[in-house]
Target: RNA binding motif protein 15B
Amino acid sequence: MPEDDQRATRNLFIGNLDHNVSEVELRRAFEKYGIIEEVVIKRPARGQGGAYAFLKFQNLDMAHRAKVAMSGRVVGRNPIKIGYGKANPTTRLWVGGLGPSTSLAALAREFDRFGSIRTIDYVKGDSFAYIQYESLDAAQAACAQMRGFPLGGPERRLRVDFAKAEETRYPQQYQPAPLPMHYELLADGYGRGRSL
Model:
C-alpha cells in the first residue's frame, strides 16, 4: 500500500513498451484510473532496449490504482512492467487517507511542525487535502515523515506525495494565526491586514 511504501509517488514508470507506442495509446490504457497530467515516452536506439514511459498522475491514489490494475497487462503487443518513478519535490503536498472527522486544525497542528505553512486547501469531509509550505525543505520533511501517520484513528493512515505547486482548489483556507493584540498599537501601516 502507498502509505507503507516510501518509494510510492504519483509518477509511474512503464517499461517493456512496443517501440511504436503512442501517447494516445498510453492515455487510453491508463486514464480510467485517474487524471494524467503528463506523458513522457523514451525510445532508445534499436538494440538498446525497449521503449519506456513515465506517466504523471494528479495524485498518489490514482497512480497506485493504475499500478495495481495494469501491472503485467498488454499494451500494444507487450506485457508491461510498472514501477513508481522518482518524486518531483515541490513545496505543495497532496495528503490522502483523511477521515470524515479530520479537522483543518488537526491538519495544521500535525503538519506545521515541519515548517511554515502558506495554505491548506481542505474542506471537512474530503478524503484529501493540499498543504502548501513556504520552503521545499519543510515539504520534503513532511512528505517523508507523515506518510503512514495515523490521523483520525489507528485504522486511517495518511498517504502523502508532492503535488503541482501552483494550483489552489479553495483559496486561503488556512492562514497562520493573527498577530497578538499588542501589535495593534503600532503606527498605521503595520496593522493587521498588511504584510510586515
